[in-house]
Amino acid sequence: MPKVTPSRQQYLDIKAQYPDAIVLFRLGDFYETFDGDAETASRELDLTLTGRGANREDRVPMAGVPYHAAETYIAKLVEKGYHVVVVEQMGTETVNGLVPREVTRIITPGTVTEPTMLDTRQNSYLLALCPEPDRKGQTWVRVGLAYVDITTGEFAATQLDTTPETEATIAVLEELARLTPREVLLPRAWADRGVTLPNNIHLTATADYYFEAATARQTLLDHFAVNSLEGFGLGAEQTLAINAAGAILQYLRDTQRSALAQIAELNAYSTAGFMVLDANTRRNLELSATIRTGKARGSLLGVLDHTVTPMGSRLLRTWINQPLLEIRQLNTRLDCVEALFDVGFIRAEVLDCLKPIADLERLANRVIGGIAGPRELLALRISIEGIPALRRSIEECAPLQPLRNQLDPCHDVVEWIGKAISSASPAVLGVPGIIQPGHSPELDHIQEATREAKEYVASLEGIERDRTGIKALKVGFNKVFGYYIEVSSANSSKVPDDYVRKQTLVNAERYITPLLKQYEEQILSAEERIIEIETKLFHDLCGSIASCAKRLISTARAAAELDVYASLAEVAAREDYTRPVLTKDDVLIIREGRHPVVEKLLQGERYVPNDTHFDTESRVHVITGPNMAGKSTAIRQVAIITLMAQIGSFVPAQEATIGIVDRIFTRIGAQDEIHAGQSTFMVEMTETAALLQCSTSRSLLILDEIGRGTSTYDGLAIARAVIEYIHNHQRLNCKTLFATHYHELTELEKILPRVRNYNVAVAEDGERIVFLHRLIPGGADRSYGVHVAQLAGMPRSLVARAHEILRDLETNG
């Protein structure tokens, strides 16, 4: 075995504690990786792979990054799903010939706290799943789910059970689609079975004992210092939810202990309290990101988001992903939006008052967690200083008074920071200049005592030039030799006797004097003491601010909610939206509805609005017409208008009466899952089967081109059977928009009493057609496919031949 050096052994000991993480080991000005970590870092970060060792046999692979650029590289690794352990040098003095090193940070995808590694407009969730399988140990029949955002302190848990409508595993996928966590914890026993998660969510296999009932419960009881979890809504029947929540806290203890202070509450919730949306529906409706780019621009969120604070933007995203079912709560939101919609100058004033407010929620949590820097306290103060003006801006708006009362000006926090922290403070601790003069008599005394020494050093160059006659004499400083006097070799004969040679350079000599050395020691020792005192004062201040945590977080959340109301009011005023009427009646009536995203993309062109009318006698709308005529847009806009109403937003319509919808399902477009061995048609049928299983009579179904992935007769048969099943099934009979090219389906209006036909109006002029984008009663009797091919720019000869073939088929069958 090759001999292991002390520093190598130091690394190996630390790596043994974190075998599944990439260890960044500080060596001087670099963080180095070794062995397999080096090969991974080289591949993922495009680093040069080097090595250390006397010969090929004991050569150790290495790859390093400069310490000052480490955050960028760490961010890339974490984004790819790796866990990173940072090992720092603890000082410069050696112990038994070795520089002490300790693990200072453990960073995983779900525990990132560094602002540069976070999306300010999106939550960063760490989620845990605690499954309970069936007797065969194959299918999850119940699942405990908990999630936390350590940057905001949000912590919630639920238990998902298998019901006649929904399997527990499906419910888990729906929550994953809503929350889009950055990391999911799963017991290792399940992770080792090859469980995979959608959308490249990072899965972390976690020790099974984290999820054990007794361990998890005690972890929660200890953290919240309570004797029972009943007060959080977690009773004995919520064991799996408790297990998942306890596992999260245990994981944070091991990776981000400082984050535990930020978790002050636990919210037990039920998915029955809001509209659950599956991943397909979220994607098809492009709620928070477009299918093409994956970005918010071009999505519903992109249209509605006029928020001016990061926390407001995060809250709006949450609302869009979690529509409500409770009319009273929705009307409360709509009242707040309406108050700001009706009075434009108040809305403008609110937005102006919100603009100077930084990410108060995350700033407060960084202070509570003890990881805030001096400038973050200054940002916190500036943000809180804007609260009184924000309170004044809404004092005449009755619906907003509960929020106004929640906005705490926190005058004590503003005063503490103003008196303690210098406005010219450095960004990080360890650099003098953080504390204001006059705040600490002890600090002021030390600074005054060192002023004479600094003034002496500052004037020394001029004094010594006059005394020695050496005009090129320089006074400088470096970390190795401290202060020095530099004289060129040509002037060495003029050097006074009291100069003591310290260093010889190529063309110069460096000297010190007893008095200069005395002042240097005074300055350096004073700086160390100043940093020590300032650090203590800073931590004391953070502790005082942390005692006001509940007030700060409450204020932040009230400001976020107000930001969302102002944003929704602003877009409603700009785009001519109207307040929807919400009702328990099973109706859905929209007059002159518009698609909010498509309307924006038209950039000034007129959008053709359409009406929709569902009641107990009109349940399934069969919509026919050619491609490009607007069928898909027309049916999606109904879903989006309904969803907007159920987040508390005004809607793009002249009038809208919305009977609360419990679920929205969409089956739109053709896509395959080749990697899973599923064809386009198989995916279509699987998704259709799932939505038919989970729908109720209060659901809204958006179905586009069901059955088009197979032969004409098979597809037509399936499409017709689906409509009949929805219409006739006792559990269903739900509001359905069914867009199709099978104009044969229009016959169903004569057979099924609650089916209605609509088509997209087309104007014909010889061989030319014009799409009017208007839905009108009745069914289309042709598909205009050849005309669409002509509009798409197909060769004229090809189009002419297609017309010939079509006429022949229509004549001869």
In summary, what is this structure?
The chain is of the alpha/beta class and 813 residues long. It is 42% helix and 19% strand. It is elongated.
Radius of gyration: 34 Å
How is the largest sheet built, in terms of strand order?
3-4-2-1-5-6
Number of strands: 26
Query: Could you list the spans in which at least 5 consecutive residues all have pLDDT below 50?
Result: 672-677
The number of helical segments is: 27
Categorize the overall geometry: elongated
Mean pLDDT: 90
Q: What percent strand?
A: 15-25%
Largest sheet: 6 strands, mixed
What is the CA–CA distance across the termini?
Answer: 84 Å
- What would you call the structural class? alpha/beta
Give the helix proportion (percent range). Answer: 40-55%
